[in-house]
Design brief:
273 residues; alpha/beta; 40% helix; globular
């Protein structure tokens, strides 16, 4: 069976979709079969891997509506072993439709109950704590939280953790926080160090050691329909995501134990790239 992981943060602009796309691409390069399930009506994960959102066939809207299976929605990307179940603005209608339904929190789980053929399904949740995000959390085995290295991100984290606790208590007792990824870091600023210290003090080893730097190349890559790990492999952001994939695999026990640096990997010491 595939392992389902939700990527969630109710605050927008924290590098959530960038992390979904790049961690997925980095793992796919290592031979794991990864499906990105775009559950955000903005469809940024879809365009980030090269989908033309104006000419999609079946989408995650059809999946949630029960009009398509995962196999019918998923399509190959430019990266071998990486698939995308795309979305577009039609998915915004699902939130309105679901709110009227019985068991509205479980539509995605029911759609994914028999998903197989992938090592991981990455669910890119919208930047809110609405019904689509709750569906993603209810369907998942674990949660990864991308967290921007800024003060307001810390405020939002406590609200997200309360939601996770509620979902675990009422909808999905197996849901666990697999890890927190610190994103958009600038090691030259004191704030990045302070946020990192506070999060690690609060969540301990739940926080990945690898820290993702703020990067111009990571911002440019989606406009070319690529992950930064294929767009500019030598950029600091790409190297950080490749290192994150290695740490992820160690945590998952999918390769031999290797030493992970005791200090965060601050991949942007020379500035952004």
């Amino acid at each position: 069976m595939s392992k389902l992981l939700a990527f969630c943060n109710q605050k927008g602009g924290v590098g959530k979709t960038t992390t979904v796309v790049n961690l997925g691409a980095a793992l796919a390069e290592k031979g794991l079969r990864v499906l990105i399930l775009d559950c955000d009506p903005q469809g940024n994960a879809s365009s980030g891997v090269g989908c033309d959102k104006s000419s999609l066939g079946k989408t995650t809207y059809d999946l949630l509506s029960g009009n398509a299976t995962v196999q019918e929605v998923a399509r190959e990307t430019k990266v071998t072993n990486l698939w995308i179940a795309p979305s577009n603005r039609n998915l915004a209608g699902a939130e309105v439709e679901l709110i009227q339904q019985i068991r509205r929190e479980f539509f995605l789980k029911d759609s994914l109950d028999d998903v197989s053929g992938y090592d991981y399904v990455f669910i890119d949740c919208p930047p809110s704590l609405g019904i689509l995000t709750v569906n993603g959390l209810a369907a998942s085995d674990g949660l990864i939280i991308p967290l921007q290295c800024e003060y307001y991100a810390l405020e939002g984290l406590s609200e997200l953790l309360k939601t996770v606790q509620l979902v675990r208590g009422k909808l999905n007792p197996k849901l666990e926080i697999l890890g927190v990824v610190l994103t958009m870091a600038d090691a030259r600023t004191r704030l990045t160090g302070q946020v990192s210290e506070e999060v690690r003090k609060f969540l301990g080893d739940k926080v990945f050691q690898v820290v993702i730097p703020r990067s111009i190349r990571a911002s440019e890559a989606p406009s070319f329909g690529e992950a930064v790990v294929t767009f500019d492999r030598n950029s600091r952001a790409a190297q950080a995501y490749l290192a994150l994939a290695e740490e992820f695999l160690v945590r998952e026990g999918r390769q031999g134990e290797r030493e992970v640096a005791g200090q965060p990997v601050e991949a942007n010491r020379g500035g952004v790239r």
